[in-house]
Amino acid sequence: MSPITLAQQIENADEDRPRWGSIVRGWRGKCPRCGSGPLLNGYLKVNHDCAVCRQELHHHRADDGPAYLTILFVGHLMAPLLHWVFVTWRPEPLTLFTIFAVGCTGLSLYLLPRLKGAMIGFQWAKGMGGFAPST
What we know:
By secondary structure, the protein is mainly alpha-helical. The chain has one domain (6-131). The protein is 59% helix and 3% strand. It has helices at residues 6-16, 19-27, 65-89, 93-126, and strands spanning 40-41, 45-46. The chain has a two-stranded antiparallel sheet. A hairpin with a 3-residue loop joins strand 1 and strand 2. The longest helix has 34 residues, at 93-126. The two termini are 15 Å apart.
């Protein structure tokens, strides 16, 4: 029997872990492995491990990625909408600012934990960091 190379381990990890399924489970705030246990404890704090399947979650490396993605999505959604509203209705500047400040804040608060969960799900599916399968 020949020893398994690192490349074969990476290929096996990709086959065994569905990428999109784990991203969706992370988006929903569930464990990327089982989809049952909670991923987050509070707003953005990641649980040490899954309460259901005992998958360790503490070694994720989401870092600033979810914040950058949130800024990217909110900016690309709200900037064209801001332009369209201004050109179409010409509201007062203070009204326009108030509506879009509340909209940007609300959308950012909605997206940030979901994108963090999705990023952790992606890391788990690809075996990145401490999520690599043990041999």
